[in-house]
Design goal:
395 residues, alpha/beta
Length: 395
């Protein structure tokens, strides 16, 4: 139990503002030579292709449609963690005009545009900002997704419904997709009942989970099905620097169930943008510095960036963030990178101008085979429901 509380504290520090969370919540060479290089590496990787899950086995990994669900999502969304979060992302209100530009651009490029937030992000500030921005947009032009924080003092289905109503008030309208943010050490089945009740009351249009493992996803899917409700989504971390859902069967399980995957941190908190190195990592403010310092100077990371650059050069005007985003798209996920300014969101949406093929996926898998910026054994969420014994989190 001590480990659980320690991990929970770390999670809250990461997601919001440390010890204030409970109090506040209760009130982003030549072309032929490069091509030969890619083809050679892809041929090597293909020898071990049987151990990799490539959805559908198509020559273009994005060609297969996303699994059917109760909500239709665009091919890319926008994660709003940084909107309002001062601890991790250094937010201040002077950025609000930039964030409004980001919102407006996303709506102009995608109809509807998906925005993912949470009550923990900025202790409600992210939801409030999004609610302000959306006032001037048509409801059909946006999909608003937010998340319930499964904190230890919240143990009843009514906790989910009450929190949902609070999020609705901050967003200023019904919620399109309501998700359980992370598993708890208990009360998880009560949360699923709360999701179903929120849906039946018309507070939300679809429901999902986040950071759920294989067994938990299947159990939640079955529980909701008994009430005639689809589990629409599972939002999980997935990127070139965090590929465990691909390796442990979680992506496959979601596909089998028809549960769409939202991939958060597809840019690995910005590490995959290529702008951080041993020379400038100390200039980073906040917890990201510690995560990045152990990675940026390694030979494996430098090789991965070089491989990403080789892919980018094969696609006109592509950059490293687009390579990272399209790696997530190639696995039938809906990436939700963050963006805090117009330049970032423009780059994100330009990823839709091209698709990553299977050979490129193999090539990048080989390049990043031994690399992760987060130790998977350092689990921030409860692994098991202590009441039911259900395994809740595995990647």
């Amino acid at each position: 139990m001590i480990i659980y509380w320690r991990n929970l504290l770390g999670l809250l520090l990461l997601q919001a503002a440390g010890f204030q969370v409970a109090k506040c919540l209760s009130q982003s060479e030549s072309s032929s030579t490069r091509r030969d290089f890619l083809n050679h590496q892809a041929a090597i990787a293909t020898a071990s292709a049987a151990s990799l899950w490539i959805p559908g086995g198509e020559s273009n990994a994005q060609a297969a449609p996303l699994p059917s669900s109760s909500i239709k999502l665009p091919p890319i969304g926008l994660g709003c963690w940084a909107w309002g979060d001062s601890l991790f992302w250094g937010y201040n209100s002077k950025q609000d005009s930039d964030l409004q530009e980001v919102f407006d651009y996303a709506v102009s490029k995608s109809s509807p545009a998906l925005f993912d937030t949470a009550e923990l992000y900025g202790l409600g500030r992210s939801e409030t900002l999004l609610g302000d921005f959306v006032k001037n947009a048509k409801e059909e032009d946006t999909i608003l997704a937010t998340k319930f924080a499964a904190l230890p003092f919240r143990t009843k289905a009514e906790s989910v419904v009450k929190a949902c109503e609070g999020s609705m008030k901050r967003l200023g309208r019904p919620i399109d997709l309501y998700q359980i943010h992370f598993p708890n050490a208990y009360a998880n089945e009560a949360y699923w009942d709360g999701l179903a009740t929120a849906y039946e009351k018309g507070l939300v249009k679809a429901v999902g989970v986040s950071n759920y493992g294989v067994d938990a996803t299947r159990a939640c899917h079955a529980a909701l099905a008994k009430r005639g409700i689809s589990l629409a989504t599972n939002q999980i971390q997935f990127s070139l620097l965090y590929r465990y859902p691909k390796e442990n069967g979680l992506l496959q399980a979601c596909q089998d169930l028809g549960v769409q995957v939202l991939s958060y941190s597809p840019l690995a908190l910005g590490l995959l943008t290529g702008k951080y190195s041993s020379e400038n990592v100390d200039k980073i403010q906040g917890p990201r510095k510690g995560l990045f310092k152990k990675t940026v100077g390694t030979l494996e990371f430098k090789n991965l960036l070089a491989s990403m650059k080789a892919i980018a050069k094969e696609h006109p005007n592509a950059d490293l963030p687009q390579v990272a985003i399209n790696y997530a798209r190639a696995h039938q996920t809906v990436p939700i990178p963050g963006a805090r300014n117009l330049r970032q969101v423009q780059s994100n949406y330009k990823a839709l101008d091209w698709n990553m093929n299977q050979e490129e996926v193999f090539f990048l898998d080989k390049a990043g085979a031994r690399l992760s910026y987060i130790d998977p054994s350092a689990k921030p969420f409860p692994q098991q429901d202590k009441d039911t014994g259900l395994k809740m989190f595995d990647s």
